[in-house]
Specification:
This protein is an alpha/beta fold. It folds into two domains: about 130 residues, translation initiation factor eif-2b, domain 1 (Four Helix Bundle (Hemerythrin (Met), subunit A)); about 230 residues, Rossmann fold (3-Layer(aba) Sandwich). α2 packs antiparallel against α3, α2 runs parallel beside α4 and α3 runs antiparallel to α4. The radius of gyration is 20 Å and the shape is globular. It binds ligand LNRAV4D5. The ligand CSC[C@H]1O[C@H](OP(=O)(O)O)[C@H](O)[C@@H]1O binds next to α2 and β11. The site of the ligand CSC[C@H]1O[C@H](OP(=O)(O)O)[C@H](O)[C@@H]1O has 16 residues, from α2 and β11.
Length: about 375
């Protein structure tokens, strides 16, 4: 996407074919800080410490991390051990394992001397595929926004289509376009009146810090809200639909996403607001029968709850303690929305019902 008029992605290759450069998203929105990554260990740290985050982006960066291993030692054991090591960076987003397993499948059948180039090319192809997938998700989601805009126009409502989103499933969470934001960007580019309610998304505030920054850079009208305001807005007819991302969807359509998504889905159902999960098929885990109990939920440091960082009036970025000394904090990073609360999944292959028969048919018929 564009930042200050310049095309930018959260991940790009550096000259020489041995390193990549990523946006260190911990510094946004106040500073745009790029960091080079040149080894599997640096990639592990970048994923673990959330310099880069977002299921599809995590997968793409990990793929390059395994390609970096192939330049060092491409033997079967070294490649498998490094893939296993990188999979341990974060447990919930299935794209991490999906990307690493895909790299192994594409590289290990080749002679060892050919593996380094093949791995780098495979990582690059995976990254570009993510861009195309997200653009397709955007096209399918755009049709939903267009339909709502048309209905509003028919009843003389000149207001924008109001979309609520949670966390950051934007271009910063992918290689480009985003998943939940792709329909929004495409609607804005098409001249459709769209406005976004941006859940701040405590405790790491991916919405307030990342989604708001992205939308601002793109000129998309948006309003940052406290996570707890979404239900009220839906109750008063101020949300036309919800678009959220996901980190893993089980075979029965249960969808795992950032903590707080489940509560938005409950409020949406109670108020008759369509609730869409934007799901690249790389995020579908058909090996998992159901998600509410089956998807591993990352427990992150309580410090993310007890402390917050921001910019002072003097322009300095500081971290402040919110809670009393000695108060404990729990910090589950994700929750799982039961399939019954999902209006539909928006995939690059079209909309699909959040249920097993439809999901298996989708994966079978359109390879
Ligand atoms: C396009 S998937 C983005 C997904 O990833 C986020 O989690 P995190 O920021 O912890 O990596 C969040 O669940 C988003 O919906």
């Amino acid at each position: 996407m564009q930042v200050n008029g310049q095309a930018l992605r959260p991940l790009r290759e550096l000259p020489g074919g041995e390193r990549i450069e990523v946006i260190d998203q911990r510094s946004l929105p106040h500073r745009l800080h790029m960091r080079p990554l040149g080894s599997p260990r640096e990639v592990f740290v970048a994923i673990r410490e959330m310099w880069v985050r977002g299921a599809p982006l995590i997968g793409a960066v990990a793929a390059y991390g395994l390609a970096m291993q192939a330049r060092r030692d491409a033997a079967d054991d070294a490649m498998r051990n490094t893939a296993h090591f990188l999979k341990g960076a974060r447990p919930t987003a299935v794209n991490l394992a999906w990307a690493l397993d895909r790299l192994l499948a594409e590289v290990l059948p080749r002679p060892v001397p050919a593996r380094a180039e093949a791995a780098w090319a495979a990582a690059a192809a995976l990254a570009e595929e993510d861009v195309a997938v997200n653009a397709a998700i955007g096209r399918h989601g755009l049709a939903l926004i267009e339909a709502i805009a048309a209905r509003k126009q028919e009843r003389g409502d000149s207001g924008p289509v109001n979309v609520l989103t949670h966390c950051n499933a934007g271009w910063l969470a992918t290689v480009d376009w985003g998943t939940a934001t792709s329909p929004i960007y495409q609607a804005h580019a098409a001249g459709l009146p769209v406005h976004v309610w941006v859940d701040e998304t405590r405790p790491r505030n991916q919405g307030a810090s990342l989604t708001a920054w992205e939308l601002g850079q793109a000129g998309v009208p948006h309003t940052v809200i406290a996570d707890n305001a979404g239900g009220h807005l839906m109750q008063h007819g101020r949300v036309d639909l919800c678009f959220v991302g996901c980190d893993r969807v089980a075979a029965n359509g249960d969808a795992c996403n950032k903590i707080g998504t489940y509560l938005k889905a409950l409020a949406a159902r109670d108020n008759g607001v369509p609730f869409y999960v934007c799901m690249p098929t790389s995020t579908l885990d058909l090996s998992l029968p159901e998600g509410v109990h089956g998807i591993p939920i990352e427990e992150r440091s309580g410090r993310e709850v007890t402390h917050i960082s921001g910019r002072t009036a003097a322009g300095e970025v500081v971290e402040l303690q919110l809670t009393p000394d000695g108060s404990a904090a729990a910090n589950p990073g994700f929750d799982v929305t039961p399939a019954r609360l999902v209006t539909a999944l928006i995939t690059e292959r079209g909309l699909v019902a959040a249920e097993e028969v439809a999901l298996r048919a989708l994966m079978e018929t359109r390879r």
